[in-house]
Design goal:
This protein is of the alpha/beta class and 403 residues long. 42% of the residues lie in helices and 11% in strands. It has 14 helices and 10 strands. Helix 1 runs antiparallel to helix 3, helix 2 runs antiparallel to helix 7 and helix 6 runs antiparallel to helix 7. The longest helix has 28 residues.
Length: 403
């Protein structure tokens, strides 16, 4: 029997959780932050929101929460990589898109012939004629089909569902239709027949990195192309409290922060650092404008935005390919969020109290609370694995500014 969707009562504050994207790094930050929020905010059930909205990597986290996976369980699956049927293997995300390469390569002879004909017989300029060869380039370098398969397996476990219509809460995963640029709100009426795992794959299909995802004859790419969080899909239905997590913020070098890495200029990091700062600045400015609009258009909704500290270099210069650093980053996000709640407690407490949510100061003040347990040092295989990953990390960090 299909469970009925929960309808908020008059005494139950209507709540929504919106999670922005950010790739593996974004997911790591959001899981660490959610674990801290789950512990410190009494009266707020992170598996009991009325509406979950997810974009890109945030879609995976939102779908997991809507499926009953607690923040701590998501940490076990995604961060700790414990052995078992739900274990997360980062290798899903780095498999070359061989099928895409092959299909594009098959088109090359025809495109080359067309270019030569245009140049030699139609009098086209060489550059104009050979622009046609661009259609032979793959639309993505990595295969994202495993994302759909693995998440479908995760949500096929007892008590979970890969069907939007079988969830107790509303879940909306936003992608972008490639041919129109329009937002595609998977999970809403008319869009809810698509499997949740397929919608996550589409929402996270970053152009250039992953090929577009074909659904019902149309092609979809990353939902962040249109908006950063797409919170309006929840706000339009009426929400008393909207909690939003955005993991990507531009970096602000602050010489007054004694614990900060000494970074004279991001240009020292070369193209990766410059492109990261550019991308982060663009999406963050769009988010800031969006929240100003939300405040004007939805004055009866309390909006709470959770983000990393822009002066903190740890997340900006992170290497998400390192398993060891993945754990360190999640712990960092957990502790940073706890610190943020302590610093903003005076302003946050009255806003949250209106909805029956209270900040547990005892939890925040406990210096012994950790997100993750230390890795066992006696396991030889684990030591070899970590040594290999640390070597990879060191090589990748050669591209980044030194401390």
């Amino acid at each position: 029997m299909r469970p009925t969707r929960r309808t908020p009562s008059a005494r139950h504050p209507r709540t929504a959780l919106a999670l922005a994207g950010g790739g593996p790094l974004g997911a790591i930050y959001e899981i660490g932050a959610l674990c801290a929020l789950d512990e410190a905010l009494q009266g707020l059930d992170f598996n009991g929101f009325d509406h979950y909205v997810g974009v890109s990597a945030g879609g995976f986290i939102a779908a997991g929460l809507a499926n009953g996976l607690t923040p701590r369980r998501l940490c076990e699956v995604f961060i700790e990589d414990r052995p078992g049927p739900e274990a997360f293997d980062p290798a899903w995300l780095v498999t070359p898109a061989w099928h895409e390469y092959a299909s594009r390569l098959q088109r090359l002879p025809g495109l080359l012939g067309s270019a030569l004909w245009g140049w030699g017989m139609e009098g086209m300029s060489f550059g104009h004629a050979f622009e046609r060869l661009g259609a032979a380039l793959p639309t993505g370098v990595l295969d994202n089909e495993a994302i759909h398969r693995q998440i479908a397996h995760l949500f096929s476990q007892p008590g979970r569902s890969n069907d939007f219509r079988e969830l107790r809460a509303r879940l909306t995963l936003v992608a972008t239709e490639l041919d129109t640029g329009n937002a595609a709100p998977f999970g809403r009426p008319g869009w809810d027949h698509v499997p949740i795992s397929r919608a996550i794959q589409a929402s996270a299909a970053l152009p250039g990195l992953f090929p577009p995802v074909t659904i019902d004859g149309k092609h979809y790419v990353d939902g962040a192309l249109k908006k950063t969080v797409h919170a309006t899909v929840a706000l339009d239905e009426g929400v008393d409290l909207l909690l939003c997590l955005n993991p990507l913020v531009p970096f602000h070098a602050d010489p007054t922060v004694s614990s900060q890495r000494r970074i004279p200029s991001l240009i020292e990091g070369g193209l990766p650092a410059v492109m990261s700062q550019t991308f982060r600045s663009m999406i963050h400015s769009r988010l800031a404008l969006g929240f100003k609009q939300y405040e004007r258009s939805y004055p009866d909704t309390d909006l709470l935005l959770i983000e990393p500290d822009q002066r903190d270099p740890e997340l900006f210069f992170a290497n998400t390919f390192s398993y060891r650093q993945r754990r360190e980053l999640a712990e960092h996000a957990y502790q940073q969020t706890r610190q943020m709640l302590r610093e903003r407690q005076a302003t946050l407490a009255p806003r949250l109290a209106r909805h029956g949510v209270h900040i547990d100061t005892a939890v925040l003040d406990d210096p012994d609370l950790k997100l993750l347990r230390p890795l066992p040092s006696h396991n030889a295989a684990a030591r070899r694995l970590h040594a290999t990953l640390d070597e990879l990390q060191a090589r990748l960090q050669a591209w980044q500014p030194q401390a």
